[in-house]
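Reviewer comment 2.1 asked that we show a complete input and output for one of the modelled complexes. We chose the pyridoxal-5'-phosphate case, as it is the one discussed in the main text.
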Amino acid sequence: MSENIQKNLETVKETISAASKKGGHPTARLVAVSKGHDREKITNALAAGHRIFGENRVQEAQAKWPDLKKRFPDVELHLIGPLQTNKVKDAVALFDVIETLDRPKLARKLLGEFEKTGRRVKLFIQVNTGEEPQKAGVSPGDLEGFSRQCRDLGLEISGLMCIPPFDEEPAMHFALLKKLGEKLGLKEISMGMTGDYEIAAALGATQVRVGTAVFGPRE
Ligand SMILES: *Cc1c(COP(=O)(O)O)cnc(C)c1O
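Response of the prediction step:
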């Protein structure tokens, strides 16, 4: 089992490296998405030397990560799922990167928590590139205004994140996110999952979020 995860990590990293290179981009970082997987699997990935992880629920991450982060202080933990304002305090305490900032109320809450605790975490704005009504994220047309609003509040934005519509070619969404990042001078681009991270890396992702190809299927 642990050998599998180590091998999977190697394979995925090689695939990323080749794809980034093919697109003429620096190698994207791998966020290993451990949602739905237990601490044993996470420990295997840590033993293999991996340090960047993603979780989509604050509560699940709280049950798995606090002591692991104490044992491995160089872990970088990303929140990649929606964040409710009543979970901001817990999220800021546990995560190092929040990839799902998507509304002014959340921006103000995060700022308040940063000021109260003196701890700042890296922020990405989630963009709803497919403009799907049920999906979180700022629509592309509102992105410039929202990112300016964040900046005016005093929040530094590191990058953009997207989850393309399930039933569409991801490439056009990845290309759009990359273009939006360039236009706004935001360097970090988080895109690509197990099914499409190779395409995302070739189109200039600076980080991909891969769960299944690293840890196997979720129960
Ligand atoms: C679950 C999840 C992933 C990883 O999905 P896989 O298909 O297992 O690689 C990536 N990004 C987000 C936002 C997710 O919720």
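DSSP finds ten helices and eight strands in the chain. We note this here for comparison with the apo prediction described in Section 3.2.
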